[in-house]
Structure formats: C-alpha cells, structure tokens
C-alpha cells in the first residue's frame, strides 16, 4: 500500500472520529439539559409531556410511510424527554428545509426541460397497460420521460463495464460528467484519472462529483486541489461537519457517467479497487453496469446537473448539455423502451421503492432480484410475499460474505418470513453481491443504485434505469441464472438454526 494512501486513511479516520465525538457531545449536552429541566419542577415535567404528545400527533399526521413514523412515535411516547431531544436534533424537517428548497428549485428548472413523448407511452399501453402504468408513474411523479430511441448494453461484471467506460471516455469531445458515491484514488481510478486529465488539457469540460462520507476512507482534501490543478472541476456532496445536522444522514449514492450527452453509464459499482476485484476484502465482488446510447442519456445528464447545481448553482444554460444528443443518433434496437430516473429523500414520494413495488404487483411469471442488503418495510414484505403466494416465482440473491456483519445479520432476519411465503432466497457463495437489479417476465428490468434497505429507499439520493423489451433483459436473466449456480439456497431449516 502506498505511503500517501496510509496517510489518507489515517487522516480520514481521525476526521470521522472527531466529528462523531463532537456530535455525540452536542447530543449528550442537550439531553443532559432536558433531564435537568425535567427534574426541576412538576410544571416543567408536564410541559415536556405535553410537547411530546404534540410532536407525536404531528408526526402521526404526516403523509409519510409508517416505517418512518413508528420509530419516532415509540421513542417520544416511551421516553418523552429523551425522545424530544433526539427528534429536535435529528428528526425535524426544518433542518433540511433550505436544502429541500434549493434542490427542488434546481430539479424543477432542469426536469422541466425534459419532455415526454406521449406517443411512446401509448405504444407501450397497446402492448401491456400494466407496463405503461409504470412508465406513467415515473414520468408523472419523478418527471423523467420514457424513451424509445436508445440502445442498451448490460455488463454482468464490473471489469467489463469499466473497460467499456474507459473506451467511451477516450472518445469525449465536449464534456464528461461523473457522479459517484465513492472514489478511491488508487489503481483502478488511476487509469480513469489519466484519461480525464488528458481530456481536460485538450479542452473537454470535465466534472467530478463525489459523496464525502462514501469517500472518506479513500480520499483526503488534497484530491479536490489536485483535480482542479489538472483543469478538472471537482465538488464534494454534503461534507461532514461538527455541527449536528439531520442532512448529514442523507448521502449521494448515485453512480453516473455522462459523455458528451450521447453515452451514459450507471450501475452498482463505485470507482474503488474492491469493486473491480483488485483487492478482495469480501471475497469476489459481484456487481453490474449498464451503458446507454441515445435519447435516454438526457435523463442521466439532467440527474447530474441537478445535484451539481443544488450544491452550488453555477449553470445558467442547461440546454447546451441536455440537447447535446442533437437528435442524430439512431438506435439499432427497435420497439425498446428505456427510462432512467432518480430518487431523493427530500420529497414525499419514494420513487425507488414504488418502481420495485410496481414490478412485483404487475409480475405474472417471475421476478428475479439482486440486492446486497435486505432490510425492508412492511409494504415491501407484503408485495414480495403476495407475489410469491400468487404463484409468481420470486427469487432474491444476497451475499454470503457481506461488507457489513451487522447489516448481514439484519438481512438474514428477514429470510424466514419471506421463505415461509414462498420467496426463494439464495446467498452468493463466492463473496459480495453488490448488484441492484430487478428482472420480471422477460419484459422489464431495473439496473441502478437502489438497494432493498431503509437507507437507499428513504434516505439516499439514488438513480436507476427501468427498461422494457430490450435485448439486455435476456442477458440479465442469463447472468442471473448463472449466478444462482454459484449460490446456496436458504431453507426454512437453516433459518431456524
């Protein structure tokens, strides 16, 4: 391991520990003051009880999922003074009101420029109304159109996807946009960085955007300075701070590369060595990627521009990037439909979860799922079990070797309920499955960044690509069935051990 890498990890760990301690001190101090007030007089105790009841009623009346309400209701009613403190520190929407306003304004300005061709949805509806309803949901709620003039290439492993990504980056003439949860300045990224530096020097506009927490053990503050010295624009999403802030819990989990507005990549992998099996901390790392060429790339561009400008608004003309496809690309695939979309925790709708639920509700024959984490709410449990009980072949592959022991045990805690209902669960024995894919009935599929866990479905900024009738779906199914051969089925007996 390189000397500078050791220093980077050491400095990042120190920073994370320091921030955690200071946040803990602030939280403890507020709880201490509240406890003191609670014991000061009967009047204050009654007042705190009244405040707790008021907050509980307010939470109960909010239009959010029960999984978001119940933890707060339990802690506030069970331990009022403690619950009030925690809620005031971490649970108030007012904490992120400024961020929400800024993000929603930028998103509206960008997504207004994306126009839905209603004829495409009509064509889909003539074949399958249930599938068309999925398109309408994403188009109306997330405001991302469905496109027909787009070619899709599915990559079953990260090394193949990454090589294709490098080839396309070499072709860039105008701009390169990259947004990733985690970037590691190591062997894999070195190859990509070399291309980006050369492109920036030749006049291509290059932007890199990464999540602070996701990259905290991989990068130090010098990374941004180094990128800017090479002519690469670089920003960090939601830097960790010592001040208690609810928004620190909302991370950018997206993985997007856009090249000239004509080619786009997304999928489950970050730009770090373990994702490409250069290192093996969790056995063999299994992940997937997808390449889009054509009109649908416009939506990936819009997703990037929204996040980039929500943090610091510097673009005044979005169209020069969104119209980069210039309408000249003619897709090889015909009668295929592609709909990239993004989700965020700042609105009322849970786009990522709803897209998955719609797939389960409309499935007739099978739904095959990859997810690294399985920590789901009642709605998802109901949809999975109802589909299985209805005769749909529902299969889920999770990792046998996880990157989080605690999360892995929580994942396994859901097995029994699902298996008893007829859901088939497998653990990928070579190592860590990090892919996030849904495949249904040889017709529709999703590839993206959205895990079946609470953080992805409720707290993170995420993205995905829904597709219908593309040849890539057959490739996804073939790879999934091959994956099952390397996976161990989980039985009811194993759950009870």
The spatial strand order of the largest sheet comes to: 9-16-15-14-10-11-12-17
**How much beta, percentage-wise?**
15-25%
Distance between the termini: 41 Å
Low-confidence stretches: 1-7
- The helix content is 40-55%
Shape type: globular
Structural class of the helix and strand makeup?
A: alpha/beta
Number of helices: 19
Tell me the Rg in angstroms. Answer: 23 Å
Mean pLDDT: 88
Number of strands: 17
Largest sheet features: 8 strands, mixed
In brief:
With 497 residues, this protein is α/β, with parallel strands linked by helices.
Topology readout:
Blueprint: H1 3-40, H2 42-60, H3 66-78, H4 80-91, H5 97-111, H6 118-127, H7 129-142, E1 150-155, H8 158-170, E2 175-180, H9 187-201, E3 205-211, H10 222-229, E4 233-237, E5 255-259, E6 263-267, E7 284-286, E8 289-294, H11 297-311, H12 319-322, E9 337-343, H13 351-362, E10 366-370, H14 378-389, E11 393-399, H15 405-412, H16 415-420, E12 424-428, E13 431-433, E14 437-440, E15 444-448, H17 454-459, E16 462-468, H18 471-485, E17 487-490, H19 492-496
Parallel strand pairs: 2-3, 3-4, 7-13, 10-11, 11-12
Antiparallel strand pairs: 1-8, 2-5, 5-6, 6-8, 9-16, 10-14, 12-17, 14-15, 15-16
Question: What would you note in describing this structure?
Answer:
The protein is of the alpha/beta class and 497 residues long. 48% of the residues lie in helices and 18% in strands. It has helices at 3-40, 42-60, 66-78, 80-91, 97-111, 118-127, 129-142, 158-170, 187-201, 222-229, 297-311, 319-322, 351-362, 378-389, 405-412, 415-420, 454-459, 471-485, 492-496, and strands at 150-155, 175-180, 205-211, 233-237, 255-259, 263-267, 284-286, 289-294, 337-343, 366-370, 393-399, 424-428, 431-433, 437-440, 444-448, 462-468, 487-490. The protein has an 8-stranded mixed β-sheet with strand order 9-16-15-14-10-11-12-17, with helices on both faces. Strand 5 (255-259) and strand 6 form a beta hairpin. Helix 5 (97-111) runs antiparallel to helix 11. The longest helix has 38 residues, at 3-40. The protein is globular and about 75 Å long. The two termini are 41 Å apart.
């Amino acid at each position: 391991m390189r000397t500078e890498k050791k220093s980077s990890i050491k400095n990042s760990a120190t920073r994370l520990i320091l921030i955690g301690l200071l946040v803990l001190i602030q939280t403890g101090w507020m709880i201490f003051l509240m406890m003191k007030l609670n014991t000061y007089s009967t009047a204050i105790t009654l007042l705190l009880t009244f405040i707790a009841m008021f907050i509980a009623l307010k939470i109960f009346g909010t239009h959010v999922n029960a999984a978001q309400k119940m933890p707060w209701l339990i802690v506030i009613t069970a331990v009022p003074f403690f619950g009030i403190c925690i809620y005031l520190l971490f649970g108030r929407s007012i904490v992120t009101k400024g961020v929400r306003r800024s993000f929603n304004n930028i998103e509206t300005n960008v997504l207004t420029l994306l126009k839905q061709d209603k004829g495409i949805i009509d064509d889909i509806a003539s074949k399958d109304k249930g599938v068309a309803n999925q398109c309408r949901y994403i188009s109306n709620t997330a405001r991302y159109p469905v496109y027909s003039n787009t070619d899709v290439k599915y990559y079953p492993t990260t090394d193949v996807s990454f090589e294709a990504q490098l080839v396309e980056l070499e072709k860039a003439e105008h701009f390169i946009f990259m947004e990733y949860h985690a970037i590691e300045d190591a062997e894999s990224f070195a190859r990509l960085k070399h291309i980006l530096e050369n492109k920036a020097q030749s006049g291509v506009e290059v932007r890199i955007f990464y999540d602070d927490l996701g990259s905290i053990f991989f990068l130090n503050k010098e990374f941004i300075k180094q990128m800017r010295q090479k002519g690469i624009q670089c920003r960090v999403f939601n830097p960790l701070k010592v001040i208690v802030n609810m928004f620190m819990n909302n991370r950018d989990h997206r993985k997007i590369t856009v090249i000239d507005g004509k080619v786009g990549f997304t999928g489950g992998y970050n730009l770090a060595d373990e994702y490409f099996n250069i290192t093996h901390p969790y056995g063999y790392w299994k992940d997937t990627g997808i390449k889009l060429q054509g009109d649908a790339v416009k939506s990936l561009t819009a997703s990037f521009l929204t996040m980039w400008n929500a943090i610091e608004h510097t673009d005044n003309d979005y169209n020069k990037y969104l119209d980069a496809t210039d309408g000249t690309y003619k897709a090889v695939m015909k009668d295929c439909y592609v709909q990239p979309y993004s989700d965020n925790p700042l609105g009322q709708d849970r786009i990522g979860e709803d897209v998955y639920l719609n797939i389960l509700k409309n499935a007739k024959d099978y739904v095959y799922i990859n997810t690294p984490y399985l920590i789901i709410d009642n709605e998802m449990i109901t949809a999975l079990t109802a589909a299985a009980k209805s005769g749909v072949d529902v299969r889920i592959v999770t990792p046998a070797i996880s990157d989080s022991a605690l999360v892995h045990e929580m994942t396994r805690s859901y097995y029994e309920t699902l298996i008893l209902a007829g859901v088939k669960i497998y653990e990928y024995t070579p190592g860590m499955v990090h892919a996030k894919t849904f495949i249904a009935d040889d017709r529709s599929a999703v590839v993206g960044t959205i895990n079946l866990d609470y953080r992805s479905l409720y707290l993170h900024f995420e993205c995905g690509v829904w597709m219908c009738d593309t040849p890539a779906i057959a490739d996804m199914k073939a790879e999934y069935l091959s994956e099952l051969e390397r996976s161990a089925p989980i039985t009811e007996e194993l759950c009870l051990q």
